[in-house]
Amino acid sequence: IVADRTQSIRASVRDVQITLVMAVALVVLVIFAFLRSARATFIPAIALPLSLIGTFGVMDLLGYSLDNLSLMALTVATGFVVDDAIVMIENVVRYVEAGMTPMQAAFRGAGQIGFTIVSLTLSLIAVFIPLLFMSGVVGRLFSEFAVTLSIAVVVSAAVSLTLTPMLCARLLRPAQGHAPGRLSRALEAGFDAMLAGYRRSLAWALARQPLVLLIAALTLAGTIGLYVVVPKGFLPQQDTGAIIAVTEGAQSVSIPRLAALQNAAAERVARDPAVSSVISFVGAGTINATPNTGRLAITLRPLGQRDGAAAVIARLRADIDAAPGLTAWFQPVQDITLGSRFSRTAYQYTLTDTDRAELAGWTPRLVDALRQSPALVNVASDQQDDGFKTEITVDRQAAMRLGVNMQAVEDTLYDAFGQRQISTIFGQANQYRVILEAGPAWQADPATLALLRVPGTNDAQVPLTQIASIRRTTAPLVVTHEEQFPAATISFDTAPGYALGDAVQAVRRAEAAIAMPATISGSFAGDAAEFQRSLAAEPWLILASLVVIYIVLGVLYESWIHPVTILSTLPSAGIGALLALMACGTDLSLVALVGVVLLMGIVKKNAIMMIDFAIEAQRARGTGPRAAIEEACLLRFRPIMMTTMAALLGAVPLVAERGAGSELRWPLGVTIIGGLLLSQLLTLYTTPVIYLAFERLRARFGGAEMVPAE
Q1: What is the pLDDT of residue 286?
Q2: Using an 8 Å Cβ cutoff, are 109 and 91 in contact?
Q3: Topology of domain 5-235+530-700, per CATH?
Q4: How far is CA 80 from CA 368, 601, 613, in A?
Q5: pLDDT in tens, 36-53
Q6: Range 477-483 contact pairs with CB under 8 angstroms and sequence separation of 24 or more
């Protein structure tokens, strides 16, 4: 076996599994740090694997497999499927600490928090609905991701509403009767200090509500501004342990000469310490469009034994470029590729025109302009118009005088340069076909045409040169078409430090700079085309998520105001995610966009927990809006911190594990961590202030909001 892609796939899946185990362990540690009880920690620690195992069962019923995307979804899910159990057990523990028996606390806590869990679950699923309806190849890729997350959330809610209260009633013990240990006292002191600090800072924020509202407005404006300027990409480039190289010789090169150059290049590549094996092939065929091109399929050693793919490619390119005769383009093989077109580089731009001559004149000009752009590298065109061609023009009058007809000329040329079967030799066991042709040495020399004789009148042998003129000229090696029109494809890569969005803008600017005629139309192909479609759909995807969340929350709360309060937390997540991406030098890729959508579901949980409690306090006890929301913020501070820390640490392995296939997980982890860090800081203060602002509006206009009954 020369090349085995299953090795890198297995390594990638194994690394995702390690990431999943790390996420589970970190989440359990967070729960123990806040609850300070092994029994209390055991309950959500059981709910977490049960939720994941239940998700496996539903995935199997749907015919899903454990691949990179579904495992990545499960890794992300570990951070928030435990949220429901955390909210439930924290509420029950609070009543146990207040003096109730575990059974009483389980009934009271589950009844009080049940609607909150339903709200958390439905609003989180609402975030994934737009992902399910994304169109095109991208939609098919991420629909399984969204379905897997939705299944995990539903199973988690079912476990939290049924198993978790039962375990609380059976396993929890009253706090009286034993002194807490040193670690428990230290953790409790730390949490009490955090709560005291939050109480003071919350009072300061509530006393300066206009300032907090201004900060919330600036956060929204900053999110929009950063979205406009952040570099945008499509899919992160992976290091899969495989590289494909397209080699190209001179347009007039012969197959034997090209094979010799290709073999020399393959030997240089094989000598590199990072290379495990090389497969080489040349000539026109299914993959190579022209006879002067070749391919090198390069398999690298395991990631721990070599440099990254980018460093290896730079080294190999310099090695091959140092030897004359061949030009080479390298690109790493990707797990996810869109489009079936083979190309020298990762991205393509296709020009079409009704006039082939006009297209042939303008394509080199655009290539030259693109090569001047710092955002693009490895710019090349598939136009090859300098191949050798021999034209034989028969003088029909001279041929008639010498008794030569056109069929005789055609037969003579085919006998010499074709493969005419003239006989079959039958043996006892085999058959042998007899092929008539000129010797290989004669076929390779165009001067052989001057030696050919054509039968004429009375079987006279007429030299071909007496009835025809022979001229050597140039011709295209291949003529490409796109939708029946002459076409030329320009291939390019993005320069280091530039995103695909920058490259797209560079192509558009170059077209405008050279004033390309309107008769020539250009369009991106493959990944670049899908990027443009996904870029156009990104704002609509986010808007659709917001609309669905608002509708679901409006139905749950029977209110048009409180859903807006909850949605007001989202800009803080957006600006945090975008700042984190820019700080890490990471594009806003499709994977990062999915992370932003996930953040919309995670971050609003803080507001839901606050507002649910405040609404209940206003309705059941007649508490004023300010006292209700202030009490809600302080009482829900611990579960808010627990759920946020669980989601944050659940995402840490996504950025900490740098094994095979980690390039796909990295933007997702950066987005979630950055968004949660900033949103946690802001929403603890902006949510109560915005809640009070809407309460004042409701009171001023005489609205009576309906709240859900117990």
Answers
A1: 57
A2: yes
A3: Multidrug efflux transporter AcrB transmembrane fold (1.20.1640)
A4: 51, 10, 20
A5: 777 878 887 788 788 888
A6: 477/251, 477/290, 477/291, 477/292, 477/384, 477/385, 477/387, 478/289, 478/290, 478/382, 478/384, 479/356, 480/289, 480/382, 482/350, 482/352, 483/352
